[in-house]
Specification:
2% strand
């Protein structure tokens, strides 16, 4: 993460509930996996043992739902081809997914995975949760991008929730 992202994250924009914290942790785990090339089982284990509701390097992490976190991270990997294709179709042709900032890419992937897998959570709730997560890292442009892409994904994946 950039210094700006770290400063923004420390500024205090944080989800308040266990699922929200699990979503944020899933985004952080995907980011870390991409950056460091960490294996799926290693990153899930690290987060469950050392981060979710634990203290690490003097910082106490709030309690999250480990099963929700694990399911989201696994869903991204099990559905990544579908997820990436859907995200890519929501981007402009001159801006492919590989050019999107890695943190934004992680936010969109986890959000898309939740839209695909967590049918008991309304799409509008999922969209709002990932917009809030983007605010933990960014000021405006990236948050607007997440908002736009998440809305497109939701209308594609959960069209029945938007008909009428």
């Amino acid at each position: 993460m950039t210094q700006e992202q770290n400063n923004k994250n420390k500024a205090g924009v944080r989800p308040a509930n266990k699922r929200g914290l699990s979503r944020l942790a899933a985004v952080q785990a995907l980011y870390q996996m991409e950056l460091a090339g960490t294996e799926l089982s290693d990153i899930v284990g690290e987060f469950k043992l050392y981060r979710l509701g634990q203290e690490l390097d003097g910082e106490t992490y709030r309690e999250a739902d480990p099963a929700w976190f694990q399911d989201l991270v696994h869903a991204v990997f099990e559905e990544q081809k579908i997820i990436d294709a859907k995200i890519h179709s929501g981007l402009s042709e001159d801006w492919p997914l590989r050019r999107v900032d890695s943190t934004v890419r992680a936010i969109l992937r986890v959000g898309a995975a939740e839209l695909l897998r967590k049918k008991d959570v309304p799409a509008k709730v999922i969209i709002n949760e990932y917009i809030e997560i983007s605010k933990a890292f960014y000021e405006k442009d990236e948050t607007r991008l997440v908002n736009g892409i998440m809305n497109r994904l939701a209308r594609d994946i959960r069209a029945s929730e938007f008909d009428g």
